[in-house]
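[Discussion] Sanity-checking designs against the backbone

I'm trying to build intuition for which residues belong where. Below is a structure token string of 486 positions. I'd appreciate it if someone posts a full sequence so I can compare it with mine line by line.
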């Protein structure tokens, strides 16, 4: 009685083994509806936005979709929507306030503005209601910065060249920096990304430019914990995580340049020459680019953070303060020399690729979409988008180049039939007016169920034949068993 049962078990095992071998020998279908994408940004074009009554807009900041401009001639803060339409002014108290530098709280609820006129003061503005509260600060308040948690503003005095701290809740003073006899004139101030430090750039009296540098202060009491000697340190910026600090300088070693330091002031060895007087630095929305505004000629430079190379755009953006829109597609420059706001449109490239393809697949479509801060989109039809397929060593194994259409879309059908199994990445490169956008989407695969067989070069003919034979033998055995039991 045991033999018929064993016979049946062997027949079923033969059927199952044959099905597994046959299935493994057949190619799998690519995963549908999956994609990977990346974004990059670069300067595209610039237009001028007139500021009512202003001949010297000093500061600019964006909150939500609204641009706020510190506007001395109107003695207030001018507002503009994302299309550049003037929305009116928030009047500041006092006889004739001179709004200078402006920042927004991290939560987007308040603005803080320094007033250079008369006795030192600053204004706290509730954005939702335009309610203004004035409180005294150090005399001749210049640049202003805010802590990452929004609890403290840091104000530089043009009188004593020190940084002074004030609570945003009620404006009370929380302390000021210790004096450094080497540096006598202050330029910029910036809180570190983690809130533990405050950075200040300084120089000696106007004309001499023989001493100056970067001061690093302890945010808890504003005592100096380090400094770097530079002839004329000006613009300040930092990476998103605060591990790199960028300083605009005209130091003899760097000339007119942007130099990179770590959070503690150690030079990383990277610097690049830029336009004259790098006065304000702004990090792009994707962290790839440093936008640099020069106060001599109001020029705009763009530094690539990956290799610290510079592109001089030839665009004019102003010499006071840069601001970036929430979506990262518009850069605003307060151009106090020419009396308006420069609006620079930024190109954004989004790349999409399949998540996986079957080995032997021929033409495969890869797409890129260009958007920017203008409506309609700027004309990129004279530019090109190049798609490169990279293997695990980043070697180019396939490529395709196309021109975008009038809607900023570009698709390339690339032949992948010769690619072996593995994981690849696709790189898209756009070459617009002022630089290059490079976007990489990593991780699409060439794979199938018989990956082991294909990878070793074994042909699927033998497994297929064996699988079919096992299926036939198993089926025949089951038929014979049923006839015998009948």
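Best answer:
Here's mine. Compare freely.
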């Amino acid at each position: 009685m045991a033999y018929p049962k064993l016979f049946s078990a062997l027949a079923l095992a033969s059927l199952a083994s044959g099905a597994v071998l046959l299935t493994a020998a057949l190619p799998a279908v690519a995963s549908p509806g999956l994609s990977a994408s990346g974004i990059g940004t670069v300067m595209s074009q610039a237009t001028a936005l007139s500021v009512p009554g202003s001949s010297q807009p000093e500061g600019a900041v964006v909150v939500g979709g609204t641009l706020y401009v510190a506007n001395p001639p109107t003695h207030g803060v001018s507002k503009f929507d994302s299309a550049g339409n003037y929305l009116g002014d928030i009047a500041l108290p006092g006889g004739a306030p001179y709004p200078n530098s402006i920042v927004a709280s991290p939560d987007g609820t308040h603005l803080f503005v320094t007033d250079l006129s008369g006795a030192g003061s600053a204004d706290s503005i509730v954005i939702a209601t335009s309610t203004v509260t004035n409180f005294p600060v150090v005399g001749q308040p210049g640049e202003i910065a805010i802590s990452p948690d929004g609890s403290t503003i840091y104000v530089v005095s043009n009188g004593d060249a020190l940084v002074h701290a004030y609570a945003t809740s009620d404006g009370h003073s929380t302390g000021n920096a210790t004096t450094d006899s080497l540096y006598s004139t202050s330029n910029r101030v910036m809180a570190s990304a983690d809130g533990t430090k405050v950075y200040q750039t300084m120089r000696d009296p106007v004309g001499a430019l023989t001493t100056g540098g970067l001061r690093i202060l302890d945010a808890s009491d504003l005592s100096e914990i380090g400094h770097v000697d530079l002839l004329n340190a000006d613009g300040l910026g930092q990476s998103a995580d605060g591990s790199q600090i960028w300083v605009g300088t005209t130091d003899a070693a760097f000339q007119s340049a942007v130099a990179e330091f770590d959070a503690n002031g150690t030079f990383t060895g990277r610097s690049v020459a830029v336009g004259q007087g790098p006065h304000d630095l702004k990090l792009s929305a994707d962290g790839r680019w440093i936008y640099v505004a020069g106060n001599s000629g109001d020029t705009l430079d763009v530094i690539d953070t990956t290799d610290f190379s510079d592109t001089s755009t030839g665009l004019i953006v102003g010499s006071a303060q840069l601001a970036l829109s929430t979506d990262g597609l518009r850069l605003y420059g307060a151009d106090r020399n020419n009396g308006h706001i420069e609006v620079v449109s930024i190109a954004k490239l989004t790349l999409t690729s399949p998540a996986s393809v079957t080995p032997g697949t021929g033409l495969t479509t890869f797409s890129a979409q260009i958007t920017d801060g203008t409506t309609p989109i700027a004309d990129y039809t004279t530019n090109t988008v190049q798609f490169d397929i990279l293997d695990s060593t980043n070697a180019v194994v396939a490529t395709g180049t196309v021109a975008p259409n009038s809607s900023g879309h570009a698709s390339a059908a690339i032949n992948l039939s010769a690619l072996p199994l593995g994981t690849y990445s696709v790189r898209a490169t756009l070459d617009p007016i002022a630089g290059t956008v490079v976007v990489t989407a990593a991780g699409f695969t060439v794979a199938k169920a018989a990956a082991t067989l294909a990878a070793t070069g074994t042909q699927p003919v033998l497994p297929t034949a064996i699988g079919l034979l096992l299926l036939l033998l198993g089926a025949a055995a089951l038929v014979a068993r049923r006839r015998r039991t009948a």
